[in-house]
Design goal:
- About 25% of the residues lie in helices and about 25% in strands.
- The protein is built from nine helices and 21 strands.
- A hairpin with a 2-residue loop joins strand 9 and strand 10.
- Helix 2 crosses helix 9.
- It starts with a helix and ends in a 32-residue tail after the last helix.
Length: about 375
Amino acid sequence: MGVSIAHHLALRGCGKIVLLEKTFIGAGSSGKSGAIIRQHYSTSLLVKMARHGVQVFSDFASHTGHACGWDAVGCLIVGHASERAAMEGNVALMRQTGAKVLSASGSDLTDLFPQGIFNESDLGAWESEAGYVDPAAVLYGYSACASRRGAVIRLGVEVTGILKVRGSVTGVSTSKGVISSGATVLCAGPWAARMAATCVLALPLTVIRPELAIYRRAGDFGAPTHPVLADMRNGFYTRPDSGERSLVGALDISSDQIIENPDCYDESVSPEFLAWTRSRASVRIPAMKHAFGRGGYSGLYTLSPDSHPMLGRAPGLENLYLAAGFSGHGFKLSPAVGRGIAELLLDGAYSSLDMTPLRPERFAQGQPVKSAYEYGLLS
């Protein structure tokens, strides 16, 4: 979010932009993202935000001058026929934005994902425009473009507090001194709540530790790659990666470990999770039974109470803006968020896409975002 916002501000010709990072760009959640780019959501706003993401990432070089590793393998969401109403509602939302998506069942599912085993009670939504990117390439592209246009990116500078005077934020204190500003954007991912607390702003955010397994597909997999698959019936998702590998994670994140200190957590993957991913993936994709394990890793998600981001002006404070609580969805939404926050800062209001429903104060107002269904990462 930081490099996307800096990039979009720089594109608008904003004056002095300073981006602070205590270690290196992507050292938090972004560098470990699965970076799946899809448009399948249960609210019109998120579909539109994700649609913008697909359009930007599929032509990233024209926006930044750099490639992002875009691979449009498509995405298949599979659920039970009993979920038809929710699935078809999401498909309708996507079509309204211009997305290329269709409902599928029976033999159509096998045609779309030949390595999978499907039955008559399976129902799918196929999104041909979806795919994934290389998160490291995106981070570099955004930051390099922002720097070329005048943004100052300071690495190794830790923000230690947000400064305010009589309800107005005036800048930040850092490990290298105080930086004054006319506007401050808090987009610190797992550290957002800690940072907000330094100016007596309580954010209802929870940090968890999801795991991700890596497998090298065997030679008899039958294809050099495969689509992104989110299997709600078996509870897992997978996407291809370079070197004929596949990343496999869990859709249900409700039992993931809560992390109190994002500076200190186990970044490895447990043997139990590796066994679970192989078992679950093999039910749908038999060839995964003999895929070669390549370990895995853990990252961090920052959850909001309704699994949707908190975007916009901080309640009760002048000159502070929030981009936090992305709940595992952030990477694909980053182009829309960067554009929108730049509009708020420079124009005083959204113009491209009204993201007001994601305002941070919605929880205190009793107006959380409600999805057609809420299943882990498929909100």
